[in-house]
Amino acid sequence: MPFTYNTPEDEAAMLAAIGVGSIEELLEQVPADFRLDRPLRLPAALGEMELDAHTRRLATRNASPTSHACFLGGGAYDHFVPAVVDAIASRGEFYTSYTPYQAEVAQGNLQAMFEYQSLVTRLTGLDVSNSSLYDGATAAAEAVLMALAASKGRTEVVLPDSLHPEYRQTIATYLSNLPGQVVTLTTPHGVIEAEALRASVNEQTACVVIPQPNFFGCIEEADELTRIAHEAGALVIAAYDPISLGVLKRPGDWSGEGAGADIAVAEGQSLGSPLQYGGPYLGMLACRESLVRRIPGRIVGQTTDRRGNRCFVLTLQTREQHIRRDKATSNVCSNQGLLALRATVYLALLGPTGLRETAHLCLQKSHYLAEQLCQSGRFEKVFAAPTFKEFVLRDRQADVAGFINDGLEHGFLAGIPLGRWYPELADCVLISVTEKRTREELDRLAAIVSSTRHGDAIAAHSALQTA
Amino acid sequence: MPFTYNTPEDEAAMLAAIGVGSIEELLEQVPADFRLDRPLRLPAALGEMELDAHTRRLATRNASPTSHACFLGGGAYDHFVPAVVDAIASRGEFYTSYTPYQAEVAQGNLQAMFEYQSLVTRLTGLDVSNSSLYDGATAAAEAVLMALAASKGRTEVVLPDSLHPEYRQTIATYLSNLPGQVVTLTTPHGVIEAEALRASVNEQTACVVIPQPNFFGCIEEADELTRIAHEAGALVIAAYDPISLGVLKRPGDWSGEGAGADIAVAEGQSLGSPLQYGGPYLGMLACRESLVRRIPGRIVGQTTDRRGNRCFVLTLQTREQHIRRDKATSNVCSNQGLLALRATVYLALLGPTGLRETAHLCLQKSHYLAEQLCQSGRFEKVFAAPTFKEFVLRDRQADVAGFINDGLEHGFLAGIPLGRWYPELADCVLISVTEKRTREELDRLAAIVSSTRHGDAIAAHSALQTA
Amino acid sequence: HDTQLLFDLSKPGRRALRLPTCDVPVQPIETLLPAGAIAEQAPALPELAEPQVVRHFTNLSTQNMSVDSHFYPLGSCTMKHNPKRNERAAGLAGLGDLHPYQPESTIQGMLALLYDLQEFLSEISGLPACSLQPAAGAHGELTALWVAAAYFRDRGEQRTKVLVPDSAHGTNPASAIMAGFETVTVKTLKSGAVDMEDFRAKLDDHIAVFMITNPNTVGIFEPAMRQIADEVHARGGLIYLDGANMNAILGVTRPGDFGADMQHYNPHKTFSGPHGGGGPGAGPICVTEKLASYLPAPIVVKRNDDNQAPVYSLDYERPKSIGRVRSFFGNTGVLVRAYCYIRTHGPDGLRRVSEQAVLNANYLLSRVKHFLPVPQGDRCMHEFVASAKQLKTERGVSAMDIAKRLLDFGVHAPTVYFPQTVPEALMCEPTETESKETLDAFAEMLFRITEEDPELLHTAPHTTAISRPDEVAAARQPTLCHCG
Amino acid sequence: HDTQLLFDLSKPGRRALRLPTCDVPVQPIETLLPAGAIAEQAPALPELAEPQVVRHFTNLSTQNMSVDSHFYPLGSCTMKHNPKRNERAAGLAGLGDLHPYQPESTIQGMLALLYDLQEFLSEISGLPACSLQPAAGAHGELTALWVAAAYFRDRGEQRTKVLVPDSAHGTNPASAIMAGFETVTVKTLKSGAVDMEDFRAKLDDHIAVFMITNPNTVGIFEPAMRQIADEVHARGGLIYLDGANMNAILGVTRPGDFGADMQHYNPHKTFSGPHGGGGPGAGPICVTEKLASYLPAPIVVKRNDDNQAPVYSLDYERPKSIGRVRSFFGNTGVLVRAYCYIRTHGPDGLRRVSEQAVLNANYLLSRVKHFLPVPQGDRCMHEFVASAKQLKTERGVSAMDIAKRLLDFGVHAPTVYFPQTVPEALMCEPTETESKETLDAFAEMLFRITEEDPELLHTAPHTTAISRPDEVAAARQPTLCHCG
């Protein structure tokens, strides 16, 4: 038992002080007929060395973006994580502390959260941010609930097909037992059409969720769409990619400064967090000042202490479940503090120039790859709309699985088949290109598509090994 | 320039304050004819992401004890490093601090060093320890210099062939321009013979270095050898493996408690430090009280501060180069503080039971493997002496290179050929087994030796992949 | 105390990260993106050098108390030791870096781990079906309530109410509301037990779920658990077990065996996942067989073909599923740590965890009760709630005063003012990963504090960088960001 | 201030690490080992639980000042920022875990890195041959002197003396003695420059090596470097360059170009390897062509066969080599970090490092000289030495008082009382990785201190856990271990 302290002598002394003869006697608080009368059926304990060997063995049974060049996106991205982010986030004082209920001994977390909130408002162009939610999808769902609550009486939520399918599914679950209906907007051309939106919004519309860039990587006409939604009295919820804000207009600025989105949500994994098979990630949520008391989750505020020093505390807690119980804005308790810290460190390292350069590299490289893949003749672009860092291609051979398998064989995680979510796009693949991908990798991926001869591809692969 | 701060505005302000027009003007302190008039011929700068990709590419061009089961020893061992050791040693306050010259802001390092010294005296059974030297070989050389200085007039240093050849080479270098001659003791049976030692020591002998276990993994008759050396008035320098002290008698106890080795040196890499291709490692040196003022390197002592609190300081500094210059006991300045910290954490985690269990696993598993390999018929034991965790085998097929290549092919770093250091053992291999090796690995290594058919071996290898 | 913000440290032109130059032909951005979509300038992030960033956050970190550095008896939060070995495993290339949409063939190791974890959690809870998807405890509660709602909907039953004891975590009623139920509060007795009279008065055929925390939030095992479960079940309702206190009962008793139909886990409490300053956690849930088909998709399944190595895959074909409750698989990084923790302990070790947690809590209770009354009595499971009511009445010393003063002694405060059923509550959960020496020192500190000058306590803490921040001002005129 | 030692925390029976049971047949230990070799009991190590170990060392760490947390202007030590990216690279599987006796075919990536590093160091120094083997700066000095001795022996010359300026690091004379030479001290002037008269008086045909630090230890570039080198060379001697101060001249000038025959590097200073609380460092050396054959073996060599990828190997066939100076290849972990640092900077970046280091030092000098005289004058390279002599005389305030008081302000002290040629010396090296803001704050602190009440200073520091330890008592009756 490496993590417990009590020696047999300790136990004896403690039991005597308690006034019982054994630990068993203490456990008699649990009625006998509830007691488990056998050991749990679990594998026997592993020492650290065995655990280490075991987990390493499991890890070697996986391919990963470390071993394979990764072109998978779809809401989770292989962006570069600077070493400083890991170094800071692995400090025990950060990752082994709890929710900062005692502000005097939690200024580290509280100030970092305040900095996070400040960075998010600067990123989005909105007034306030909370200190994190679970992930992009639940942040979107919480934003929808905020909008429904804010626009009393309105019950419709317009979701375009170009919004991440798992976000749409999550929102549907969140609405499943509540008054609030999803109105689906089809996007046959890969983006929301202004006319279609105009036809979908009315006095029942609480909000419209506008993804930017959307799930297909396409750029929505956010200015126009925002105007349409606002004209109908609906709130606009932006679902943005934080990296894209190195080049794209901020949600708060859509359709003109201060006239933009009312709430902006994002998956913050791109900002310095590892992919770790889907989570924990970082739900980001910012909004206009007027919505501040409807925000779900923790918020940190600045104040002064009894000596007059600037300091930070959890604030507006009357929104929260631990105070308001069934009247709370949300049931959120644990948030993603450590991931928000990672995003804070990441953005501090990047600065405005680093963010812009990162976004530009994604933009340029993804367009280059799309072009190379289309030139092969096997693929064609599906949507005409401009894209940021990912794009949808149609395999003229209708063999997406084959393409992905060929990629694997040559050291690539080549793309995401879209058939699971979009049956009509069963012959299509979503390909994402981050700043990490080198031209050499892009050219090799294009080469295995162009070449049907196996030998060439193998040669390309060996080239990598000697690089 | 990610690590510098000055903006052009800063530079201008600073130059103005200094009273010069440019940095160039400051550099004119260097005479013009010495100035380099071209850029250094170095590769262009890499951003962090590029550096990361580059170093990962270099790493994938190496096989390693992470990817291959490692049976290499010879003074550097693949022992298990608990995660706590890495977590503590990667705290910036430890690894980015300097030699604790200002005790008030270095109690962390000073106390850890004091604990290290205390642990080493308990490990060795000797009175005092310094706070580290470069590695085992230089610790041995420094010990020899100590012994020569202590036994004024005596100039001979007896080194057996069973001492690590690189330790012998290092000692020879250290003695190259000093009064002090090496007397070599051959060890045809893998250990020092008492009679041979008796014949080599005399009133000129300053010291005898006794390795335990020795380079061949064999157990020396340390008690008897110590008595012989001491009878001749020579000092005994033990060169021990710290892990072996989980089962073997402490150097200070050789030939009876308090009658043992006078100085004990070791390579401390085994105690929680990574292999990292040969360094940095940890030179350990402990000795009797009477030799304390001849110790090379830093020593930490306990004292009290002006308020009467227990605290720790660098002490006995009049031995050292920064005070005594050409009268110092050694020129050592930088030591291996971070590695000593690792050893301290490692020993704190192991405790007496963990150290004993680790030693026992090495002992049992190495004997098991030796037996399995010999049963194959291809190998035979070379020396009759008992061994601890490594052993020398002779390849009856005299194809050590073939054995090692076969091993590589099946995922093993199988052993160290001895021919480089011992031409007479050119058909021999040194094999080491730590607690990390599993029976399955030992059996598979034995299997590839037994089997001459390639197919079987491949099958054995695939078994690993699916484990 | 230096409260310089990142923004205060910024100077135009500083850089901490240099990106490579573009190695593909660069096209004018206007040809790639519509003019209206392009930002006029980059967001006003601070401009810093790397050493600044490192020093800023390193020093910030030391303003926190944490389990790595301090005793942290924050009741209900199970602030136990966070093993470094788990951090190492979760960070391995091949585990920590997998993309959520990789082909299943490329993640067999990860799926095997997750499948086994599903099985482990089911075995520990006695509830056979498991979903690893929820992102946190409260999210698990909500997911389970959605499952319950789907179950009743499927059966054509109109059940609108959820019973919640007044001592429950605030997440319980909040989750019930989000799942579309109304909450009905059930009173508890001074002992912390459910007031059976009140319970029976409120139990009817509209009750969908009784959300019970057992051991409850004062740390006692619900004495009427059997009756509660039987009577709820008799009315066709379901029992939901708030798993926050699982640390008390691992291998001792199983929720599925004492009547629960659903439960969540807090792996970051029970299974030592670090709390990360408030998160991330995870909230896997286990349910009975009859509720299994409503769990969120996907779930990891295992196929054993004859004589072949097992093949793992993700089962999305769950037509009755409530659907997704979040994106991607789940908080896998947290789940990997939980898996490691369970593998490290095995059956005997897990039971010993609970035994030692209960021993430590009872020992601390026995030391403290003499000067800080513990209304629930002399026994507890893994935590107990002391009350400073008498001190407050007699000397004006509040639970908050005691909590703040403890900070001066280098110990984190217990949870205060929860549960609301105990006046001036101090909820202490020492966990099994603390020593008798630490508990003795803590008890002595508490005693010493109860004897100290109340004035000293009202203004505590005295040794921390800041003291008693003005929370009222913070909430009244909120400053929520440093606006550039 | 808690000074509990590991031993104070120990209790019999505690365990932090569980080893697996033996999976091979266990034989009685007496059948494997001779009775006389077996220990009667295990060493008396402390017995601890893992949380204790983590908390103990976490809290110990915060008792240190470090570059990650504080400005650390410790002259001559180049306490610059230690990039985290280098730590990551050095810890990679495949770089950080290689066994030193792996077959060369299995370490081509590592050998390529080390080969390139040899080339980089040669280019930066202007000295064409390189050995990466020495373990630290002082070890590099010693190795170079062994090389010199071997060179002269090979030429049949009897040279017994090494010239060392009185301002040199103590390692210089200490290394000279260990290499079998006698040291002859050369005086320096108040400006820090070599006293040429004294130098010429001591230069003769028995001089093997002049060990010069340039920029020297007061931070000025030796004005008579040309003459010194010419005159030593004319007498057949060699110039050794103590590379501690290379941070001042990267890409600006090269030791090989200003007359050095040999030099060492301190990668943990110049190339940002962290200092680790006193080590590890590394001490690679570069030498001229004529000395190359005496370098320690092995050296990494590269073979380019036609149209093949280059093959790297270790060259042990060096018959004139002085032999080994340590075991294994070298302090590779430190060298990997140096390699990363050089690759991160490239030619322009390295030069900029020195430019900024010189700018920062001169700026600080310009701010400080008004109240803390700098005897060497108004200019320096990367560091300078101020003197508190006047303060000492007039107000009784010593360099040590100032150093200790700085700790109260959250800044590490400069190097004090070195070089011994400057009375009440305060040697400041700000490095290029500090900001103007930090330098301004530091200068203000220094000024404020010089105005403070001397009594306050004599008893400083006041805010640290301990203050002014009794070093005399420590040395007189040494307590060097906690003896069980």
Would you kindly provide a written description of the structure presented here, covering whatever features stand out?
The complex is a heterotetramer, with 2 copies of chain A (467 residues) and 2 copies of chain C (484 residues). Chain A is of the alpha/beta class. Chain A folds into 2 domains: 69-79 and 357-465, Aspartate Aminotransferase, domain 1 (Alpha-Beta Complex), CATH 3.90.1150; 83-344, Type I PLP-dependent aspartate aminotransferase-like (Major domain) (Aspartate Aminotransferase, domain 2, 3-Layer(aba) Sandwich). Chain A has 15 helices and 15 strands. In chain A, α4 (83-89) runs antiparallel to α12 (337-375) and α12 packs across α14. Mean pLDDT of chain A is 94; it is low at 452-467. Chain C has 3 domains: 6-61, no CATH class; 87-343, Type I PLP-dependent aspartate aminotransferase-like (Major domain) (Aspartate Aminotransferase, domain 2), CATH 3.40.640.10; 347-458, Aspartate Aminotransferase, domain 1 (Alpha-Beta Complex), CATH 3.90.1150. In chain C, β8 (299-303) and β9 (311-315) form a beta hairpin. The longest helix of chain C is centred in the C-terminal third of the chain and has 37 residues, at 332-368. At the A-C interface, α1, α2, α3, α4 and α5 of A face α2, α3, α4, α5 and α6 of C.
Q: Would you spell out the secondary-structure blueprint of this structure?
A:
The complex is a heterotetramer, with two copies of chain A (467 residues) and two copies of chain C (484 residues).
Chain A: H1 8-18, H2 23-27, H3 48-60, E1 69-70, H4 83-89, H5 92-95, H6 107-124, E2 128-129, H7 136-150, E3 156-160, H8 165-175, E4 181-185, H9 194-200, E5 205-212, H10 222-231, E6 235-240, E7 263-267, E8 283-287, E9 300-304, E10 310-314, H11 321-324, H12 337-375, E11 379-381, E12 390-395, H13 400-409, E13 412-413, E14 416-417, E15 428-432, H14 439-450, H15 454-465
Parallel strand pairs in A: 1-13, 3-4, 3-5, 5-6, 6-7
Antiparallel strand pairs in A: 2-8, 7-8, 9-10, 11-12, 12-15, 14-15
Helix pairs in contact in A: 4-12, 6-12, 7-8, 12-14
Chain C: H1 29-32, H2 50-61, H3 84-90, H4 108-125, E1 129-131, H5 137-154, E2 161-165, H6 171-178, E3 182-186, H7 196-202, E4 207-213, H8 225-234, E5 238-242, E6 262-264, H9 267-270, E7 285-287, E8 299-303, E9 311-315, H10 332-368, E10 384-387, H11 389-395, H12 399-408, E11 415-416, E12 425-428, H13 436-451, H14 454-458, H15 471-476
Parallel strand pairs in C: 2-3, 2-4, 4-5, 5-6
Antiparallel strand pairs in C: 1-7, 6-7, 8-9, 10-12, 11-12
Helix pairs in contact in C: 3-10, 4-10, 5-6, 10-13
